[in-house]
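Contributing new records

If you add data, match the layout below exactly. Sequence lines come first and carry their own label; structure lines follow with theirs. Keep one chain per record. Anything else will be rejected by the validation script.
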Amino acid sequence: MDLRDRQVIVMGAGKSGIAAAGLLAGIGARPVIFDENRDLDIQGCIRRLEEHSGKEAGEELRVIVGELSDEEVSASALLVMSPGIPVDTPFVERFKEKQIPVWGEIELAYRYAKGRLIAITGTNGKTTTTALTGKITADHFGRSFVVGNIGDPYTDHALAMKEDDVTVAEISSFQLETIEAFHPQVSAILNITPDHLNRHHTMENYAKCKEDVSLNQTKEDVCVLNYEDAYTRDFGERCPAQVIYFSSERELHPGIYCIGEEIYYDRGDGSGYGLALNTPKSRAGKRVIPMTARVEEALLFEKARQASLNLTCQVTVNGYSDFIFL
């Protein structure tokens, strides 16, 4: 979609909304930040928006609070949603009724980003796993972008990315509600347990959102799944990507598994390898938690390797050993 010189409504004046508006201004679109909070500090919002976009507020950079007129909706080419806003609200329906596309901030960023993408989701452990995977890829390539639900908006960095860059994104179920073309080369679902049911209404809806991290993947891509989680193990049977299971409780052939403080990868064709990893340190510098308790975080080195990232085993070991767990 060519958004140059076209009006785009960005719903939400928070961190991701400001970042999305900054990206839109950077590609020549006309972003309008809309927030229903009539008490919003408009001048503060405008200052942040100008800092992100490098442009001054005016016809091409606006903030509207309270209500959005039908004229503004009809004049828009796209609605960009902040993840905290449900997609089944009357406000969103106004755009859908006019067949105006509705994207999330993650989808917008993906459309303009470059390079290779690792996307990590799950109910628990995804922030630590994302940070660790980002460190491993940064150690190997010199830099990587760690974005998404971890706290740094994807849209803040998308336009700075190059074709040889690697992005590691923590993706929430809220963010996965509004994807269309989003297509990571490597995805991971660490686990699925009941959460956010006030938003998703049923466990089935919640699990489907998590599974959608692989929605556009093919057998040329990889999805890493937890064999010990009933939802992810079942999803592996219908996942569109090449599935690699991991387990901290049993040997997997093929798959990735842990024995003591060693991780093994069985490719299923008679080949594979093992890695002996040091137990990581806490913020206080003390060694913490046996390897089996952190295997979910450590095993994702294989995700990066499979995504044509060609990480060496030594980089993986060093990255894990030096990582400071929260």
